[in-house]
TrEMBL record:
Presence of keyword Membrane: yes
Species lineage: Eukaryota, Fungi, Dikarya, Basidiomycota, Agaricomycotina
TM ranges: 17-37, 43-65, 77-101, 113-133
Protein name: Uncharacterized protein
Record organism: Phlebiopsis gigantea (strain 11061_1 CR5-6)
Keywords: Membrane, Transmembrane, Transmembrane helix
Amino acid sequence: MLIFGLLTMKIIYQFEVVLRALVLYTGLGGPVIGFILQLSGPAYRVTMVVATMALQVIGDGMLIYRCLVIFSYRWSMVALPVALFIVSTSVTAALLGLTAGNNTFLNLNANDGHLYSALTNTALATTLVTNIITTELRLTLPRAQF
């Protein structure tokens, strides 16, 4: 139910951005400039990163919990997915900090565009690998005896 609520919030917020940019914007440049201005605002970016981070944490957490239940709470079976989950959540939190505009804690001599891209790719890759590993654990290894 929480995932449904978060996805609905994302869709409603994106609809509002499109409505403001394409219908209600009356400034110079027309709807195209209005759309660019709406998408480049910090509120839009932070909202999308927060919603995506919450969905990633909930989804991966549910998969790892399901593996724990299937394997009778043997943490050794899910050690790698838990480590990847921690890395993915940490990278997404750093991405949120960068997106919110407070990137002084990173103190890197890199272009923010490249850093943003690298963090996004790392978060998505670790989430994908976590999903693949937990799915393989559930499908290939013998189930716990009850």
